[in-house]
Amino acid sequence: MDTLRLLASQGAQAGWLSESFSYAFMVNALVAALLVGPLLGGLGTLVIAKRLAFFSEAVGHAALTGIAIGVLLGEPPENPIIGLFCFCMIFALLLHFVRNRTAVPYDTLVGVFLAVALAGGAALLMYVARKINIHMLENVLFGSILTITDFDLLVLGISCLLIIVGLMFTFNRILLASISPDIAKVRGYNTHFYDYLFVMMITLVTIAAVKIVGAVLVGALLLIPGATARLMTKSMGSFVLLSSLLATLSCLIGTLLPMELKLPIPSGASIILVAASFFLIATIYRIVGGRT
């Protein structure tokens, strides 16, 4: 990373790149955008196919409780990664387990778990309020890609690598288990296994992306590029590729635009607004083009 930051700084001094690239935090932010953008876009297509739109939202909000638990257990307040990861993973797997064992509608179940997680987080934060900076909570809720550190990039890179390797061998099976579970069972696929595997992937990428776009907005970045791509394409291959491309462009443009134009907009909100602009353009294109 030091070499990359040095090259970017030299490029800015030589006038090849914008002045923004002379800042190390901007280089870190763009690398994070290039890592998480394609992954969120690709997984978003499966989230849409499996109708898990509110699931990632609930996991993102559960991050607040995970952070409070991590600080209570003695982790550094700046990066309570173990508490965050463990709580969110238990939260997601328990939610999915209860869903498979009861007849309660899934959206109702997500609402119940979300409310419990938020209430627990609010209660625990009262105990750790003196140990943490209030701005850290703002970063958890709304993200701050500009504060990404080398350690965050390492965690993000490992998470992305694990998920990409997992998807390389299971994407088609997860997709078939989502679209037609009966056919998947006939072919001998363990649909419950692939369901839990996908839930773990979504939870992992949600935790990794919380610092970039925030708990409130991470679900939006999973969904909006996929929804935009769904309006523009028909085949599954182009659906995944376009969704990944749009998510990556949203992350890059949403990070660079406020810096270049000196706009007082949080990076997380800027990324989502760019993604929403793509969705608006695609919707107008479909309506005006008469393809709805």
Provide a concise account of the structure shown.
The protein is an all-alpha fold and about 290 residues long. Helices cover about 80% and strands about 0% of the residues. The longest helix has 30 residues, at about 150-180.
Explain what you see.
This protein has 292 residues and is mostly helical. The protein contains 12 helices and no strands. α2 packs parallel to α7, α3 packs across α4 (81-101) and α10 (218-232) packs parallel to α12. It is globular. The N and C termini lie far apart (46 Å). The mean pLDDT is 81.
Write the topology of this structure.
Layout: H1 2-13, H2 24-49, H3 53-72, H4 81-101, H5 106-128, H6 134-142, H7 150-179, H8 181-186, H9 191-213, H10 218-232, H11 236-261, H12 267-288
Number of strands: 0
Order of helical and strand elements = HHHHHHHHHHHH
Q: If helices are DSSP runs of H or I spanning 4 or more residues, what is the number of helices?
A: 12
The quaternary state of the protein chains shown equals: single chain
- What is the first-to-last residue Cα distance? 46 Å
From the helix content, strand content and strand pairing, which structural class follows? mainly alpha
Largest beta-sheet details: none
Q: What fraction strand?
A: under 5%
Would you tell me the overall average pLDDT? 81
Alpha carbon gyration radius: 20 Å
Poorly predicted runs are none
> Helicity range of the residues?
over 70%
The 3D shape can be described as globular
Keyphrases for this structure?
mainly alpha, 292 residues, single chain
